[in-house]
Amino acid sequence: MSDGDYDYLIKFLALGDSGVGKTSFLYQYTDGKFNSKFITTVGIDFREKRVVYKSTGPDGSSGKGQKIHMQLWDTAGQERFRSLTTAFFRDAMGFLLLFDLTNEQSFLNVRNWMSQLQIHAYCENPDIILCGNKCDLSDQRMVSETEARELAEKYGIPYFETSAANGQNVNQAVEVLLDLIMKRMERCVDKSWIPDGTVRANGPSNPDISESSERSKCAC
Amino acid sequence: MPQAADTINLGFLSESERENILKVLQRDEELRQAEDQRVRKLRTELQDVKRKGAKRGDESYSQRSCGRCLEPLSRLALFPRQCKMCHHHICQKCQTVLPDGSWLCSVCIKESDLKKRTGDWFYDQRVNRFITTPAHDLVRISLRKPPNKRETTGEALMKSTEIKLDPPTPVPRARQKNPTTDKSQSSENSGSVASRESFESKPRSDIESENASISTSTTENKCGHVTPDRPRKEKTPSRSSLAGSSVSSLTIPAKTDVVSVDGSSETNAVSEVKQVSPSPELDVDRLFKKSIKRAPKPQEHVSTLDLRDRRETLEAPMGNRSQSVPGLDIKEDEEEDEDIDSLVSFHKRSLASSSSSLHSSKTTLGSMMSIYSEAGDFDSVEVSGEVVFSIIYDEHTQSLQVFIKECNELAYGDASRQLSNPYVKCYLLPDKSRQSKRKTSTKRNTINPVYNETLKYSISRTQLFTRSLLISVWHHGRLSRNTFLGEVEIALDCRDLDSPYEDRVVLMAKSASAVPASPFAQYKGELVISLKYITPTKTATEKSKGKKAATEEGGELHVLIKEAKNLIAMKTGGTSDSFVKGYLFPVTAKTTKKKTPVVKKNLNPHYDHIFVYKGLALDQMKEMCLELTVWDREAMLSNEFLGGVRLSSGKGTVKIGKEEVVMDSLGEEVSLWEKMMQYPGSWAEGTLPLRSTMGKGK
Ligand SMILES: Nc1nc2c(ncn2[C@@H]2O[C@H](COP(=O)(O)OP(=O)(O)O)[C@@H](O)[C@H]2O)c(=O)[nH]1
Ligand SMILES: [Mg+2]
Ligand SMILES: [Zn+2]
Ligand SMILES: [Zn+2]
After folding, report:
1. A210 in a domain, yes or no?
2. Do A67 and B57 touch (CB under 8 A)?
3. Is the pTM of the predicted complex or chain greater than 0.80?
4. DSSP letter for each residue of B663-690
5. N or C: which end of chain A has fewer CB within 10 A?
6. Do residues B205 and B298 share a domain?
7. What residue's CA is closest to ligand 1, atom 28?
């Protein structure tokens, strides 16, 4: 699996309260399966999947396919693992923040997770997708779609109602996140020749130095 | 909340939990290793592209030629042609159009593509974020260790947990104060942890803000991305059972070539001047980083010269085949290579009387014992014939006048072609400097040249008493490789210089003993160079772009002439104006003479100049021989030989002209050449002692 035959290694991380369905979600995404048995994730875990990413140009034309190797980190939501799991936040390029539509507390805790992300992620405004999971259990629903969307809007992040059980919106959520990452990547690279017009790139400069001055913020 | 690095400890986990986590980390490590490899490969690719088109710096220069392929740019710029990233002027061939309609040059496109593919865009940002902690910078600088920005938490955790995950007993060891108590199997590990602990006592604080305790040691990875020092033996063998259940793999699409290296390869001339240790380690990352850091300024003239050399290439064959090319003499004259010193070494011995006056001579001692007849093959020519001359002293002009009439029945300088282009050269010994040198014209294709030329020395009559006249005959060979045809020495102390009588003297061979036993017997200084062989580009498909096929048939030898040290002073004031000349043998059309610019008034000159020899296959190099010679430039006179090196495998012979010459490279000359062949793509650097003679030993 981990031969180097891919174009990009993209690392995502799923977070959220324990039991909201992170493990199930990732399992559904990578394997297309669902297991109703609840096995607590011990600290951390990850899954892998390869996809082909086709960027869509402004004219709607799709470019050449890029081979993506995805590493999807799963984290334990339990407090006792917190120090361990947050340490892994910094390695992820994008985040799937899940809450359980049938569990209001998990929704209220989204705020906490967001602030954890702001502290521990690679930059202050990383790409995040909010997922209200277990949408198949509509009769037990405790969080309305409207209030969930409002929260997502407040943070400026996309929102999906997903089901790890039947797979609804699971692929879509990850694909949107991937698209965000790939676009951010382009912006970051583009930006490197715009800022102050200095000659760098192939110039005799040390990239480590020149870049740190150029991008103190990640708002690219 | 944040804990110190050495207290990282998964003690709160149960035995099985730790085991689980470790397995995850191990899977992660495998993925990371594959990724490291991939990234290194990408960086190597970028290096290749950069190497091919690498004009930098001076932009005024670059307006006249393409910054990548170095082809001249037409004056009429119909399109904007400054690359928005590197600001070089770029020809249309070397522009790659982006989806949004803009374009970048071949190198910049590759570089920005690489930023994405390697994940550098991400790591660069992350570094910025966590580096903003003020203390962080300071500590890092004080430790003089670059951060490993790619290290992941998993990687760090892996390192810090390895020791702790398998304790003999669940010791409540909060700190690794006692690594020696660890099991022997992990002694290697604990050692490294102990040291990490000690030098991390300071930087600890800087990381606290960025994340929880576990990753505290992350930024202090000593060994770069690859971390080859991590002991692999500790991996749990049970990995497969766990991995099997959790790793999923789905459709992997058919391979498509997404990376397209821009085809600027055809016309490349120069590569960047890189300074990399020649050590055989193939750490591409390091190569890459270092090469960027160095900012070699003399790039521009590298390319200029290269163009000029190309022009010379065209001229060279003419000189070889023609007996009647006029002006050849003049053209080559200023760079004619000296052979006087070989003569001197002989005559110094034979003329004991003159040695006393050596000190008064303007020549420095260093020039005396050297020889550089580029062919150096006087032994291979059977000396024959005679020289006809007369010598008078003209009181009126206070000058000694040597009338060279003719030579008869000379040997063939080029035996295989039954050809001689002879000229006569005189020195008024013991002065062996160029001030003492006089030459006749060169006669073409004859062994019975008639000169009727007078060579004059301004000198007082009384001084002649201690002098002698050395008359030597040389064949002017191809590429200035001259062949010794014979010599005579006329003592002046007992000669009647008042009546011009014609002398007819049989030419003599040099005594073999005149040649110094070892070309290294005398210290002539050193030459610092780097060699790199670049394997040919494999992008065969790029050929279809319609470029000359010639450049694709082989790789390139890049010879970086860095500097010379402790050269012999040739000029008054104790300096020399030196340059380095390169010949790659056997000579092909592509590998002609190269020269560095002259560095003036410096006995430790920095040339920082690259000779590029193209169209060479790697296994061809075994049979090739590179001669680099250092010369003192003299505007009106011949250049003076300062020393040289001969690089080759040291085995076998090489064809120079029509002759098989022994490749007598020694020591560093051999090892550097072999290192170059052994590690294509890497610079092999060496400091070579300069030979005092390039004569081929027998
Ligand atoms: N019906 C339903 N059950 C789910 C869904 N996602 C997870 N579950 C169940 O919720 C429990 C916790 O799921 P898990 O993936 O382990 O949550 P985690 O702690 O966030 O990793 C398990 O019993 C799952 O079967 C879902 O979308 N629909
Ligand atoms: Mg879980
Ligand atoms: Zn070009
Ligand atoms: Zn450019």
Report:
1. no
2. no
3. no
4. ----THHHHHHHHHHHSTTS-EEEEEEP
5. N
6. yes
7. A134
